[in-house]
Amino acid sequence: MTLTADTEAVRIEHLSKVYKDFWGRDKVRALDDLSLTIHRGEVFGLLGPNGSGKSTTIKLLLGLIFPTAGSASILGHPAGSTAINERIGFLPEESYLYRFLTGEETLHFYGRLFKIPRKELNRRVPLLLDTVGLNTKDRKRKLREYSKGMARRIGLAQALINNPDLILLDEPTTGLDPIGTREMKDLIISLKEQGKTVLLCSHLLADVQDVCERITILFRGQMQTLGQVRDLLEVKDITQIQTKGMTPAQVEEMRQFLSRMGVSDTVVTHPTTTLEDLFMRIVRERTVNGQVVPVGATPGNGHAGNGKPGM
Taking 80 as the threshold, does the pLDDT of residue 298 lie above it? Predict the structure, then answer.
């Protein structure tokens, strides 16, 4: 498929960010030559340990900071352009909302900032509060009385008040109980079904595995891998055969010769590892004696290769 501005939600090309010290000397390379494309209508996972460059990437996309090199575009416009602000929703890891407002007042306040007509706002606010699971009593309480999970819910509602095309979610399940976590994941899937694009940053790898189609893993500012979740987790050197309704006698017969069994609905697949295992393996492989092994180099011998991750 040829990617164009109509099919791309986010395009990042050779993006780098270097933080400098007081004297203008390079201090931290937070992001190093990142290139990737996020398609419209997909749920994309941005993973990595603390200090890997996830937050820097989001800040660059939102125009909160400027790149040292490279470029990024969102919905066909340069990152940071005011022309697309109203089409973006953002849930930061910590939502800094006005604690003296109620849940309802919070959404009305941000809706007015987006110049949403009063009639539409009166319709949209209760729908969003229902969607994120804040009941009639909770939505009338002051935010200073909210638990962390409730604060997360109202923060998500605020991120959706403008009906955005692109939603950036940073650790969206933080503070939620298992039921709330499941509801959050169901909501992310429903956003995709509405044709919206979701960029999800999370340390909870199982959550990402449940909702994301493609992921990238960052480590020390560099992209380590990029691809479909199912492809990255597939163990290709092991073949797995699955079927149902087999008797013990059939199982024994299968061990001798599969073609003599006559079992229908047999599926031959490759078993998968978990996203958590993939994540930890990449971090371990790229670290030798506390030092980062550059992408393309072979850990342990310092020989460079040409195996940069593809897009």
Answer: no
Alpha helices in 194-262 (DSSP H): 205-211, 229-233, 248-256
> In 3-state terms, what secondary structure has residue 5?
coil
Nearest-angstrom CA–CA distance, 129 and 157: 7
Estimate the share of the chain in helix, then strand, then coil, as percent rounded to the nearest 5.
35, 25, 40
Q: What is the pLDDT of residue 189?
A: 92
pLDDT, residue 289, reads 62
Tell me how far apart the alpha carbons of residues 197 and 188 are, in angstroms, rounded to a whole number.
10
Residues 6+ apart with CB under 8 A from 83: 77
Q: What is the chain's Cα-based Rg? A: 23
Query: How far apart, in whole angstroms, are the C-alpha atoms of residue 31 and residue 69?
Result: 10
Please check whether residue 53 is in contact with residue 221, taking contact to mean a CB–CB distance below 8 angstroms. yes
pLDDT of residue 175: 77
